[in-house]
Amino acid sequence: MxxxxxxxxxxxxxxxxxxxxxxxxxxxxxxxxxAEVGIVTxxxxxxxxxFFRNQMPEFFERGIPGTLFGQSQPITGAPxxxxxxxxxxxAGHGWEFGAHGYTHAYMLSQASDDVxxxxxxxxxxxxxxxxxxxxxxxxxxxxxxxxxxLQRVRVYYKAHFRxxxxxxxxxxxxxxxxxxxxxxxxxxxxxxxxCAEMERAGREGYWLVYIWHRVVDVPTYEYENSxxxxxxxxxxxxxxxDEGVVRLMTARDALEVVPHTPK
Length: 263
Hints:
The protein has 263 residues and is an alpha/beta fold.
């Protein structure tokens, strides 16, 4: 199938962590027999210095983990781009760096074999060299892939994330790790609507994967979200986590919880 389109540790943090653990325990006890608390994963497809400086601290301050999918070519420290120092700091905030190609300039399903290997293999090596952590997750640039691409992805990575699909919903007992659905946070939905989606994932016990691309004052196209919506959604996610309604995880960590069910 081809898809194209769309430092200080004190009593405060300790008590907060205890509260989160207690909330999760309560939710697990209250859930129906056999049910698991659902997972929400936030992914970011943006390696600009602007996003890293302005939006990533909002995740960090709330203790929200996630996965940044980045093409590795522009991570040079040039004006406007994040740096490898930025990338190395992600792990300290509970974040994962996943691969998103080398250049993000090709439709992988149409790329030559040599270009495909470059787009898959080079970022794996660069991320490992730049951060000391080998990436295990890959998101296709432009949301474009076919079976030939997936065959090569399996050589380098443990999972492949789509650009969209099934509203970002992945069922615990029916998820192929090489066809993981994601969905961009819609700027046409209110914070309350997104909050309800996350709560539903937690209570019904499935894995919901969101994408953020750009956060601006006034969105002008579908892959932009307002600052108010972005911060409101993160506030809700943090609250649901603290109440034990959802588990917030990186893509890497969620893969250890959601079984691989090949198609």
